[in-house]
Every structure is written in C-alpha cells, then in structure tokens.
Amino acid sequence: MDITTPITEEVASSLNIGDTITISGYIFCGRDAVLPKVVKLIEDGKADQLGADLKGNVIFHTAVSPAGVGPTSSNKLEIESSIEPLSKAGVKLHLGKGKISEKTIAALDKYNSLYAVIPPVTALLEEKTLERKLIAFPELGMEALYLLKVDKYPAIIAAAHGRSIYE
User: Fold this and answer.
1) Which residues touch 80 (CB under 8 Å, ≥6 apart)?
2) Are 27 and 59 in contact (CB under 8 A)?
3) Which CATH class is domain 2-159?
4) Angle, CA 52 vertex, CA 104 and CA 116 arms, to 5°
5) pTM given for the model
6) For 126-151, what is each residue's pLDDT tens digit?
C-alpha cells in the first residue's frame, strides 16, 4: 500500500502487521540523542518550536549523514521511551528496526499509531530521499532532528492494534 504523509487516522486503522507499505511525503528523522529533546519540548508545551507539525507524521529512527540514511535499533532506551509520548502528540508511524516491548506495542495501540521496520538498505533509501532539511538541535550533527521529503520508502508494519510480528 502506498501512503502519503500526513497519515490519517483512517489509514493508520487500516494497516495490519505484515502489510508492506511505501511512504511518500515529508518524514522526521531522529534517534537516541534528539528524541528525548523532542519529547521534552512536547512535555513543556513547546512542540511548535520544531517548526513542523508532528500530527499524522512519521519518525524514522536514523541519523542523517552524507552517506545516506538507514534504520537504527528502535529498542534503545532513548528511542523506545519516546514512542509513547510522540504517538500521543500525533505521530502515526515510527520507522526503525528490531523488536519493541509489549508495553510499547500497547502504547502504539492506545494512540492508533504504528511501528514499521525498514530494510537496512542505505543506498536504496538515499535514492528515494528527495530533500533534507535540518529542523532542530544542529549541535547534534547528523543526530539532529531532520525533515526529509521521501518518495516510496519501503517498510513493513511490525506492530499494530496491540499485535506484533515478533510474537
């Protein structure tokens, strides 16, 4: 299924574990160093300082480097602990790799959000990355928060509606 950001509640509700999707539109990129900072801005009521709306959006667990982008492990403490508050703030899809906890799967379900694994194919993703823009926390270099414009990023839904492909 081809989906375009922002992702609606209806699209999120229609996806199930094992579905193969492609993602087009703008997505956020962030990992261990930046996601706790983004969560802090949300908690402080300052999410508008990001310069882009999280609602209906995607967060790809990656750094952005000249070599391209590729998924990092989503079950790292700093990343996995960001999934619930980001979902509550409106993020509909979290992209990364690896198994996430049952608690996180339940949190995704609570907010009609999804987790998808993305193949670790940096060169393929670079071809499908049309634009990149530094959004916040430039001092973190390639681990800062970026906004990418992508065309048909491939991914597989790994957690949805209280279930996981890792069960």
Assistant:
1) 74, 100, 101, 104
2) yes
3) alpha beta
4) 30
5) 0.76
6) 778 899 999 999 999 888 999 999 99
